[in-house]
Amino acid sequence: MSRTIRELQRRRRAAESGSIPSGRGGSLSVCLVYPNRYYTAMSSLGFQAVYRLFNDQPDVVCERAFLPDKDELVEYEKSGTTLLSLESGRPVSDFDVIAFSISFEPDFINIPRILKLARIPELTSERDRSCPLLIAGGAACFINPEPVALLFDLFAIGEGETLIPLLTALLCSSLGQQRSELLAAAAELPGIYVPIVPVAPAVRRMAAAPDAPPSCSVVLTDDTEFSNMYLVEVSRGCPRGCRFCAAGFVWQPFRQQPLERLKQVCAEGLKLRSTIGLVGAAVSDHAHIEELSRFIVEQGGKVSLSSLRLDRLNSGMLDLLVKSGHKTVSLAPEGGSQRMRDMIRKNLTERQILDAVQMVAQAGILNLKLYFIIGLPGETDDDLRELVSLTTAIQSTVVEQARAHKRLGEITLSVNPFIPKPFTPLQWAGMCPLPELKCKVALLEKQLRPIANVRLKVEELQGCVLQSLLSRGGRELTPLIRLMADGLNLRKAAKILGLNPEARVTETFPLDAELPWDVLHTTDGERLKAEYREAMQIIGVRP
After folding, report:
1. pLDDT digits (tens, 9 = 90+) for 347-359
2. CATH hierarchy code of domain 228-326
3. Cα Rg for the chain, rounded, in angstroms?
4. In the chain, is it the N or the C terminus that has fewer CB atoms within a 10 Å radius of its CB?
């Protein structure tokens, strides 16, 4: 082991509180891997929750590993050190099971990199029983696992509270068994997808039990995006059903944690951090979110919300955010015009948006971050001009309040291209072609430039093409992922393989098309089609 790597690992462990001590006994050893760097991994509440769930199982000891940082990676390659776990510095390849927690499709590219560092063959077909069992779970996997299906022995499709106890019980009882027998048994478990076993019927996602306790921070460290917070999940799923978003269709049903339980968890969290970060896809839709926030403030803490719904804002909630020191509020109109908001079923009017902005500004929060999607199906330049007009009206509202508060604020427009996602009503729609997206961005830049105190931030477009490709693709993308893991960019890797990424991501699928993610089951198939037809009717398209 490199001395430099050993010292880095030691410093990371010393900076943490709450990690599971190394040296614990357990008949099954699991290395939990996040396919990105430590900072990103430890900012993920889902990753931390899975780490706790594995270690809560009898006879299981779970450690962690990550994609090395840039300088750390150079040291690994220079010294020839194999990838090591954080807790004990044990080679990742020595564990019984390597479990990947994958939240985002672009992280698929990091999986072959990690396997190479761990000296593990990338494809399941190249591995024998001397290799650890490779499993994967996380949001990206139970939306569409197919682009990386050839890299893993099995996938956990659904929520860890239900799946991890089932899976680890099988694995503990199957140690020493032939790999083929183990996988055949795993394929019989609910929510387990084994790529080499023919899928019939499609695998159903498993949800946590309704009374499952909330996920909350396990390991605290300053080396995360939320270093000053103790994170608590208040709800799971979303009741809104916006047509572009998986949260309202994949994480079902919408579940809210009981208020008294949340108060207990938050009270414990305040012993460790002064700010409680309330997490969920629809935090402000929790029936008691204001009461919970008031409890946190009354206990001497501060509250931070991962999202705010425009039509759920009120003066009481804003007062609590001000007392918690908030200088910026993030709001998500999503569609720049009423036509686009209706098409995605955002259920927001311009009046509601402006009323919410005025309420926020009156409370003294003068910095706004506004999320918009461009390139939605049927979007025209007129829709973009309405986005500019809406921004102008928002800016005027903020400036008026700024005079009363005698200070200026800044409005940041975070603009992201539409990326069609599996298991949403817009899964059949194609992404807007890259040249058109560039023209749309240029139009916005030109028209927003004269508006004072407004800043435009656009997601990198080529990266969105990759994300869309990985979201909608199948096993044919595995060679592309491996080439990109070796350092080639999307364009070069696609050229070698004879792929046309832009043609693929802009393709509109027929409603009766077989889709790569059909290996997974949805109870909402007819609803998704009905929502898609209604969306297309709004923009004058017959699917």
Report:
1. 999 999 999 999 9
2. 3.30.750.210
3. 24
4. N
